[in-house]
Amino acid sequence: MATTKQLLSDLVSGVSSVPSNYIRPISDRPNIDEVSLGNPIPLIDLQGLDGSNRSDVVKEIGQACQEYGFFQVKNHGIPEEVIDKMLCLSRDFFHLPESERMKNYSDDPMKTTRLSTSFNVKTEKVSNWRDFLRIHCHPLEDYIHEWPTNPPSFREDVAEYSKNARGLALTLLEAISESLGLDRDYINKALGKHGQHMAINYYPPCPQPELTYGLPGHADPNLITILLQDNVPGLQVLKDGKWLAVPPISNTFIVNIGDQMQVISNDRYKSVLHRAIVNSNKERISIPTFYCPSPDAVTLPAPHLINDHHPPLYRNFAYSDYYKKFWNRGLATETCLDMFKITTSNP
Ligand SMILES: O=C(O)CCC(=O)C(=O)O
């Protein structure tokens, strides 16, 4: 008798080809031959932020936000041990028995702690080759009691990692504020009580990676994302119409601009499409920290960046409205931002 598995990780052990609901139309497949290899995403050394080189590093960050919407950081201040524990624990979590993992399962995108699969199983037509655990991390005391308790060190290790990731996010937000010519604390103050979510993405090996995606091209709805990936490649970023592979470099993070930053910067900085591809022999783990405004905070283009030559491109909106639209729409390459643009038909 056929059994229904809700998680991909429990389905894959028995399959030698990709089930039909994961197969993308021919016009929308990874086309790995057309992807640019090498590593063109700027790698920025954050050590200089603390000294007399600060303005140079801020400039580098600003340029990367403008030209790529993506950069990598080294000397970021997060101890290697904290990173290693986070990666190990994530692998251990996805290797737990099905019955143990399923205690956290939900297909409701508004739940603040949940294990799920693909992107939004309620709205999407084609599934993605991914399971994920998604949690909220800030304020920690509001959410930690919901987090899994297995592996036993989950709460302690993830709390440690998420506090470190938050510290890095705040450092980067100050630098990005300055790079836009805004007060150093402008963005910090624009986020209400602040929010921080984390996903632990688990991409099992895939028998036919050319037919499907771990995650198809999408932009992030939040402010900035800080991505930790293990040593298995998979991330690709769109630049000038071409997909660029971003191979892992140990002890670095990948940072990208999300939609809220595009709005605050009034389109100076772009929230760009990126995607995750899968491979036939290795599982892959990636851990994005999504730093965001609190749900009630209102996002708007920074008044300092508005003038006669640069009219505001977006109307004001609450982050909670944006977030709901993002999850309900299915993961599409058309950005949600269009729904919040000031146009003659959308004043
Ligand atoms: O797995 C990756 O490298 C990308 C993950 C990602 O884009 C996401 O979770 O939104």
Number of domains: 1
The helix-strand sequence is: HEHEHHEEHHHEEEEEEHEEEEH
| Count, helices | 9
Taking pLDDT < 50 over at least 5 consecutive residues as the criterion, the unreliable ranges are: none
CATH topology: Jelly Rolls
Note the main sheet: 8 strands, mixed
Rg over CA atoms: 20 Å
Structure characterization notes:
The chain has 347 residues and is of the alpha+beta class. The termini are far apart. The longest helix has 26 residues, at 154-179. The chain is built from nine helices and 14 strands. It has helices spanning 8-11, 54-67, 80-94, 98-101, 140-143, 154-179, 186-189, 259-264, 319-328, and strands at 43-45, 70-74, 113-117, 131-138, 195-203, 215-218, 224-229, 235-239, 242-245, 253-257, 274-276, 284-292, 298-299, 317-318. The model has no long low-confidence stretch (mean pLDDT 94).
Which helices and strands appear, and what pairs or packs with what?
Blueprint: H1 8-11, E1 43-45, H2 54-67, E2 70-74, H3 80-94, H4 98-101, E3 113-117, E4 131-138, H5 140-143, H6 154-179, H7 186-189, E5 195-203, E6 215-218, E7 224-229, E8 235-239, E9 242-245, E10 253-257, H8 259-264, E11 274-276, E12 284-292, E13 298-299, E14 317-318, H9 319-328
Parallel strand pairs: 1-2
Antiparallel strand pairs: 2-10, 3-4, 4-5, 5-12, 6-11, 7-10, 7-12, 8-9, 8-11, 13-14
Helix pairs in contact: 2-6, 3-6
The site of 2-oxoglutaric acid has 12 residues, from strand 5, strand 7, strand 11 and strand 12.
